[in-house]
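no rush on this but wanted to send it before i forget. theres a chain ive been looking at and ive put its sequence and its fold in token form underneath. please have a look and point out which stretches look like helix strand or loop to you. thanks a lot i owe you, the record is right below:
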Amino acid sequence: MKRCRHCRRKRVTRPRGLCWDCYYLPGVRELYPATSKYGQRGPGISRRHAVPPPFPTNALPGSPEKIQVLTQRLEHGFDLWHPNDATLDGGAELSEAG
């Protein structure tokens, strides 16, 4: 039987390895990171309050330029994607290359 990570007395019944009482104590839940593989978040993932980028980029997906733009957006707190960013879909010069 796993014991609570906070009080070490009661059985774990809630996420983050906590018992029922500790999980609902104010401030305790924030002390322990999520233990679920679905609860892990990295930079740029699930940024609900991110500001949209001020302008789109012409850099193609997967290019070093696009990766640099995404890095800059992340560092400045912008959302990673702009609705008008360049895509591989509409480029006539890309469909003729070959």
In short: The radius of gyration is 22 Å. The chain has two domains: 1-40, 42-98.
